[in-house]
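Hey, quick one: can you model this chain's 3D structure?
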Amino acid sequence: MTSLTELSVEYNPNITGTIPESISALKNLNVLSLSNTDMYGTLPSGMSKLGNLELLLLDDNEFSGSVEILQNLTNLKFLYLEDNRFNDTIDDNFLKELDQLVHLDISANDFRGSSVPAHLFGFPDLKVLDMSSNHRMNGPLPAEAIANAKDSKLEHLSLHSMNITGQIPPGISALKNLTHLDLSLNQLSGDIPPELAELPKLRYLFLGRNDFSAGPVPEWLRNMTKLTELSLKASALTGLIPDWIGTDLSKLMFLDFGENSLEGPLPESLGSLVNLWILILNQNNLNGTIPLSFGQLTSLETLLIDSNQFEGNANVLCSRKDKIEYFIADCASDPETDSNVVEIRCDCCSLCCHDKNTTCNDAEWLGNQESIWESGYSRVKWEFEAGKISLFNN
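Sure thing. Here's the predicted structure for all 394 residues.
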């Protein structure tokens, strides 16, 4: 056993208990995978002897306590700790010695500290950094370290649900290899920096549910032509939905402008987004009718237009061969009267609401990509409180 180089027992619920101190005898281990078992407890000090480890997977268990002993595992390249109960304080020394890391995922734990350690942006080979859903984190992003990361290989940066404060630093444009950026569900303020448009490979941009300054949909977004997913939910957006959304951002599969103060009619050009699966526009001040061009949105599986002032009917969407999975509109009559008058007629909606019914469609429709190593940190489905939309076998 001491010559063992790989120990993989992932996805085995019959594996339970704690990691034994005797694991220190397996000094030749390159791979230790305990993902999705039923293990718990703190990491034994004997793990610090596993100096040859390159791949360590402890995700989706009930491990807790400190990860300090991992500092000795300086050959680690892939470290997955997500979905546990680790509760270290993240500071300037956090995993500082592990500068060979390619993937670091510590999401959905109980880590605390002042946002993201600056030194992580200096790791030369780091491609994936996911610290999301550590709700006891806070503080601003390390602006100087980010601006100086001009040689960074970082592709996937997920920092949602972390109570990050301050502004998005303009120097984020240094991260030229980013394809995925999620800073949603924080306390970021000020203007959304136009330097984001200088990220030439970005496909996924989630910035919703922050405290940004009020203003129109940023014009510079039209230059981000590789975007497939864009969320500016609850971002204090005002004015009209611009025509160029439907012409310049033609690769969009997911678009969320919900919970803003947008007004006016829907542009016909939105019907050109033929790759669109998810369109969330509820809780705005939009009006007019559903454009005839929406008949071209044959991939659409979720459409939320409730809590607006639309009128007319949804015939252009109800005539589809297949029904939209989640289609919610203000197609219910006044619950306080016997009137059959509705704002918009819809024979194919999955849920009809009325403005007076404040609890109608009160589910969360966030759509954040909860990335996992098993899928290569790629999107495979959208999960909402009401259900999920899968990209495969839908």
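One thing worth noting: The mean pLDDT is 95.
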